[in-house]
Structure formats: structure tokens, C-alpha cells
Amino acid sequence: MTSKIAMCTAVIATFGAIFAYMGGATQANAGIYKNNAAIKKTEASNQWNYFQSKSTKQALAEFARDTAADEARKQGWQAKVARYEQEKTDIQTEAKKLEAEASKWDAKSDEQMHQHHRWAQATTVLQVSIALAAIALLTKNKWLERAMFGVAVAGLAVGGLAAFHV
């Protein structure tokens, strides 16, 4: 019984170490992806601020056009109004594109965090299995030995869920 439990404990500890590494890696990825999302959100915000400045300029140009005394000045201001309108359309398109990119990075981060939690759960269950193995060795209880194997299988199953992104 002792050598069998010792061998199983070594195997369980090896899987636990791998699962712990994967948990850390997915957590780091989640942080990187969340950072990328924040950068894209900031870029989108900058675009929306630029859009707002063009809107203000357009409003001033419309006011100047509407209060201009002669037709030549009205035409000049109207050309600026049209230019600002086109620029706003381009800026808005870019801002929406950046917001979509931020959403994609957020989704990737959420997926990695979910996977991280699975790896952490698997690692914890395997640690419980190792603790049961130690108690089984000390007490020579058969039911604790069986519990250790059962919990180890559960930990490996949760690790399998993490590996397959479930």
C-alpha cells in the first residue's frame, strides 16, 4: 500500500505542478489581453474626443455660414461644414473599429480567466488528493486510500475541462 500511494502521490504532484503552471500562464494572458483592451478603449476614446472637436468646429462653421453677409463667404463656410462632416464620418468609423477591437480583447481576457479558474480548481483538487494520501499513509485506512484515488481522478477531470476550454 505504501509504495503504491507514494507512486500515485508523485504522479498527482506532477500533474498538479503542470496544472499550476497552466493556471499562472492563463492568468498572465488574461492580464495582457485586458491591457490590450484598455489600450484600444483609450484609442477609441481619443477618436471620440477628436470627433467631438470636429463637431464643435462644424457647429461654429455652420453658425458663421448662417450669419455671413455675402454669398462668397457662405460658400466658403459651407465647404468647411462639408469637410468637417466627412472628417467626422471617417473618425467615427475608426472609433467604432477600435471599440470592436477592445471588445475582442475583453472577450479573450474573459475566456482566459475562465480557463485560469479551471486550472486553479484542478490544482486545488489534486492538492486535496495529496493531503488524503498523506493521511492514508499515516492511518493505514483503506477508505482514505480510495478517497485519494477518487479525488485525484476528479482533479484530473477538472484539468481535462481546463485543457479543452470547457
TrEMBL record:
The chain crosses the membrane at residues 147-165. Residues 1-30 form the signal peptide. Pfam families: DUF4337. This is Na+/glutamate symporter. It comes from the Bacteria. Residues 74-108 form a coiled coil. Keywords: Coiled coil, Membrane, Signal, Transmembrane, Transmembrane helix. InterPro entries: DUF4337.
